[in-house]
């Protein structure tokens, strides 16, 4: 009797929710066609790819790790790997806590209209492309004609080559990234803060808790799960690097600190028609990112957090 009852429950459930499953067909099909089927081309990393023969007809490389070996023996690859870890690490160190701090500050503002205006101004740069931002940076930070250097010159300082000296380039690169994405990430934390029970704040106020005490004992614990999830996701991207940001900002004078894996792959692999090499480097990046992701998730669970699965 139990199998029949469970079967009837399943049929009743499907009758009620079949429209939801029907709507899932398109996103699932999109994921399969554009996300999973292209993964079959990973085999290029262990083949001597010939664009005229195609992926499957191209011969296997001898040995299979040929392209990995070629990448690992190249000095420029290790330089790009170091720069990727350095820039992404600095982005994580400085860029991860700032949206949390900004969200806490905006949440404490008493004037709602001022809060909304500030929030809008802060997250608008997210919608600008890195091509536009790099163009603005080159104009504003130009050694002779840039507004920043003109003002510094009037103060008796400069000119400063922000985009032409290694240390200053890295600082400018990180600062522009913070300016662009800080406001957008703040929205996530503000949304999490709105989910905290307001009665907790009322009870803390009755007990005489100050604003800092309420932030430390109510707000931060209330958004801790959101912070952990975003931290795990950021750890999973520690070796992945976007292409447009470093490519738009780099120049020949700072290539020792500006060349990352994405621009290295474009320059050496795609422009050099070494597609198997690009696949090998991309597979290496993906494997390392997955290791970081699983490690961060396991570490979060070990400390009593839920993680992302």
Q: Please give the domain count.
A: 2
The class by helix and strand makeup works out as: mainly alpha
Instruction: Please report which band the strand proportion falls in: under 5%, 5-15%, 15-25%, 25-35%, 35-45% or over 45%.
Output: under 5%
Overall radius of gyration: 25 Å
What percent of residues adopt helix (DSSP H or I)? 55-70%
Low-confidence stretches: none
Integer average pLDDT: 87
Distance between the termini: 35 Å
Please report the total strand number as a whole number.
0
What sequence of helices (H) and strands (E) makes up the elements? HHHHHHHHHHHHHHHH
CATH superfamily of the largest domain: MetI-like
| 3D shape | flat
H/I helix tally: 16
* CATH level 1 name of the largest domain: Mainly Alpha
Known CATH architecture of the largest domain: Orthogonal Bundle
* CATH fold node name of the largest domain: MetI-like fold
Described by strand count, sense and barrel closure, the largest sheet is: none
Could you give the topology of this structure?
Layout (H helix, E strand, L loop, with lengths): L1 H22 L1 H12 L29 H7 L2 H21 L1 H12 L3 H12 L6 H11 L6 H8 L11 H29 L3 H9 L4 H12 L1 H12 L8 H6 L5 H4 L2 H10 L4 H28 L7
Helix pairs in contact: 3-16, 4-9, 4-15, 5-9, 6-9, 12-16, 15-16
